[in-house]
């Protein structure tokens, strides 16, 4: 295991101890089977306890885990014949977002998602999954095409947020995000959005207006990063942990706030522990969602989409 | 400043007394924020808070804006009593909102309603940056969405003046979702043939600029208004580069193709009147 998160350390320590005892047993006359069994039982309990009681800040760490599967990892497991297409036709190709078509169980679909890099080099190319306006415009171009050819749209959300850069502002970052929100509202094909890692602010929302919104158990969705919130609210980015709790950004929080439809469970210890298993969990939810949504007429779809967003928010 | 500036505005709307009380602060004189020249308050009120010397557009309160545009006695407010709750149980949020309610005389950072602009009926929303910096929470999203739906039902145009620092932090993701909610409402309105005019005033940033403010059939701005998504400081930190003085001003946005026009406050009513008339005529020909 390359990356160990702070809260996982007791688990790792215990695992090492068990390995040590096993090694000792195999190399000496002493039979420690009983002790090993006890420790393994404790490990089981400890894992259940730690992973079953993750605090918001722990989940932020999970969502940001360097080995956390990306959009492309899930595309490979869930879809077949994925063909990626590039460019927004106005300015360029933003590799922070990928888009293309594929089969989902024999049904052609359009797949769009933020794409982080696996290493520094790829991250630079993909701008750490933080889009410029051309990324949103590429996404919208593919969504319109999906509508034309009657393909459901599946969006994977995984970004720290829109890129705060000069060029992004000069090319109409605000307009590009706003345009997507508005146009996604009117697409006459089913749209399923799944937050797989970090869902940060307008950059996430620009792929996030749809009929069903799901979140992986350890993903987050927020108006601003915990660090950004802490800096704004308490003038201290160091209070990110406090912000993660106060801002209510976990899948469980969003379910409670009636913003998302379903929490997709994660493999124990996080999605990165078992990509295939994780892809299966996501696959099941996509399948259910598509079945449900394909029953609606275009008019019903749009009316329900409005009803869905209409009720979000609390006031007196 | 042009002499004809208020010639076409025949009548003023009367402001309810509880609003005028807070809109007219103590003191006889006021200093221009830009050129620092001192003026009588009455003088600035006449020019709608535009500096007679340098033309700087000082913020205009929601009710002052309404007074400056609508025919006297025609503006009827919607959802006046809607108030903010504390959906995340955010510490200190209730107190902050209460304080701004007292300070501004408003229930939230927005007023919505309908009335006549030189005889032309329109639905209307105006944000007020003196209330929690015009940040957008559930109430603002809901009132805008309802105003747009009302406009759609009544086949009225929809005019919105934005002024917002962005998302309301204390409402977290619910604030973010108001961007989606208002945008879905605008899509429905637009598809029904509705005319939407957005006027961005200082400041229009963050989630507000990245949703309804940018979604008008016409997008205007007041001179010098700050308009943009990300904040200047965060951009400078990210790209390690000093940004030009005019970065994210209305003039910058016009140059980069993001605005239809920059409209000085003195010309606003005339322009809106002409646009409303043209669209009404076009519609009746259809
Ligand atoms: Zn001045």
Task: Describe the structure in your own words.
Chain B: A zinc finger (C4-type) spans 32-54. Chain B: Acetyl-CoA carboxylase is a heterohexamer composed of biotin carboxyl carrier protein (AccB), biotin carboxylase (AccC) and two subunits each of ACCase subunit alpha (AccA) and ACCase subunit beta (AccD). Chain B: It is found in: Cytoplasm. Chain B: Keywords: ATP-binding, Cytoplasm, Fatty acid biosynthesis, Fatty acid metabolism, Lipid biosynthesis, Lipid metabolism, Metal-binding, Nucleotide-binding, Transferase, Zinc, Zinc-finger. The complex is a heterodimer of chains A (316) and B (286). Chain A is an alpha/beta fold and 316 residues long. Chain A has helices at residues 9-27, 33-52, 56-63, 71-78, 120-125, 133-148, 166-170, 173-186, 201-205, 226-234, 240-246, 251-256, 275-293, 298-310, and strands at residues 80-85, 97-104, 107-114, 153-159, 191-200, 212-216, 220-222, 262-264. In chain A, strands 1, 2, 3, 4, 5, 6, 7 and 8 form an eight-stranded mixed sheet that branches. In chain A, α6 (133-148) packs parallel to α8. Chain B has two domains: 25-58, no CATH class; 59-279, 2-enoyl-CoA Hydratase, Chain A, domain 1, CATH 3.90.226. In chain B, the strands form two sheets. In chain B, strands 3, 4, 5, 6, 7, 8, 9 and 10 form an eight-stranded mixed sheet that branches. In chain B, strands 1-2 form a two-stranded antiparallel ribbon. Chain B starts with 16 loop residues before the first helix and ends with a helix. The interface between A and B is large, with 51 and 59 residues. The structure holds zinc ion. Residues 32, 34-35, 37, 51, 53-54, 56 of chain B line the site of zinc ion.
């Amino acid at each position: 295991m390359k990356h160990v998160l702070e809260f996982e350390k007791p688990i790792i320590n215990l695992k090492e101890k068990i390995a040590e005892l096993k090694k000792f047993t195999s190399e000496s006359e002493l039979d420690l089977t009983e002790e090993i069994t006890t420790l393994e039982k404790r490990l089981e309990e400890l894992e259940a306890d730690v992973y079953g009681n993750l605090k918001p800040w722990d989940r932020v760490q999970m969502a940001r885990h360097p080995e956390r599967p990306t959009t492309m990892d899930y595309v490979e497991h869930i879809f077949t014949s994925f063909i990626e297409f590039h460019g927004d036709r106005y300015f360029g190709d933003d590799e922070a977002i990928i888009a293309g078509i594929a089969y989902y169980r024999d049904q052609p679909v359009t797949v769009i998602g933020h794409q982080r890099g696996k290493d520094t080099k790829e991250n630079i190319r993909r701008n750490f999954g933080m889009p410029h306006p051309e990324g949103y415009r590429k996404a919208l171009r593919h969504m319109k095409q999906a509508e034309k050819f009657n393909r459901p749209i599946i969006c994977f959300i995984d970004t720290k947020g829109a890129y705060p850069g000069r060029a992004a502002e000069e090319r109409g970052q605000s307009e590009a995000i706003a345009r997507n929100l508005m146009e996604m509202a009117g697409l006459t094909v089913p749209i399923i959005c799944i937050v797989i890692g970090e869902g940060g602010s307008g950059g996430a929302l620009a792929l996030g207006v749809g009929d069903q919104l799901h979140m992986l158990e350890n993903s987050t969705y927020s108006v601003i990063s915990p660090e950004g919130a802490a800096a704004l609210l308490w003038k201290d980015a160091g209070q990110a942990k406090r912000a993660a709790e106060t801002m209510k950004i976990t899948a469980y929080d969003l379910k409670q706030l009636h913003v998302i439809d379903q929490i997709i469970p994660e493999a124990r210890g996080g999605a990165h522990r078992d990509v295939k298993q994780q892809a299966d969990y996501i696959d099941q939810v996509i399948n259910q969602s598509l079945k449900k949504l394909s029953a609606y007429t275009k008019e019903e779809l749009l009316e329900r989409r409005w009803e869905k967003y209409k009720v979000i928010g609390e006031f007196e | 400043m042009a002499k004809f500036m208020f010639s076409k505005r025949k009548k003023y709307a009367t402001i309810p007394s509880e609003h005028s009380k807070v809109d007219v602060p103590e003191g006889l004189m006021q200093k221009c924020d830009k050129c620092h020249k001192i003026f009588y308050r009455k003088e600035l009120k006449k020019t709608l808070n535009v500096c007679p010397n340098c033309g700087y557009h000082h913020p205009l309160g929601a009710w002052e804006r309404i007074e400056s545009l609508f025919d006297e006695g025609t503006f009827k407010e919607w959802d006046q009593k809607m108030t903010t709750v504390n959906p995340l149980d955010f510490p200190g949020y209730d107190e902050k909102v209460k304080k701004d309610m007292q300070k501004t005389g408003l229930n939230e950072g927005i007023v919505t309603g309908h009335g006549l602009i030189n005889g032309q009926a329109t639905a209307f929303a105006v944000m007020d940056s003196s209330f929690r910096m015009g940040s957008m929470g559930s109430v603002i999203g809901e009132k805008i969405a309802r105003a747009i739906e009302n406009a759609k039902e009544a086949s009225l145009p929809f005019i919105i003046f934005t002024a917002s620092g962005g998302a309301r932090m204390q409402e977290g993701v619910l604030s973010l979702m108001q961007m989606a909610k208002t945008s879905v409402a605008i899509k429905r309105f637009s598809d029904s043939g509705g005319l939407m005019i957005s006027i961005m005033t200082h400041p229009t940033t963050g989630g507000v600029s990245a949703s309804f403010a940018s979604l008008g059939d016409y997008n205007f701005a007041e001179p010098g208004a700050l308009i943009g998504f990300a904040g200047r400081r965060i951009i400078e930190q990210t790209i390690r580069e000093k940004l030009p003085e005019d970065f994210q001003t209305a003039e910058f946005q016009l140059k980069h193709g993001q605005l239809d026009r920059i409209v000085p406050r003195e010309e606003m009513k005339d322009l809106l009147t002409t646009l409303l008339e043209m669209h009404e005529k076009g519609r009746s020909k259809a």
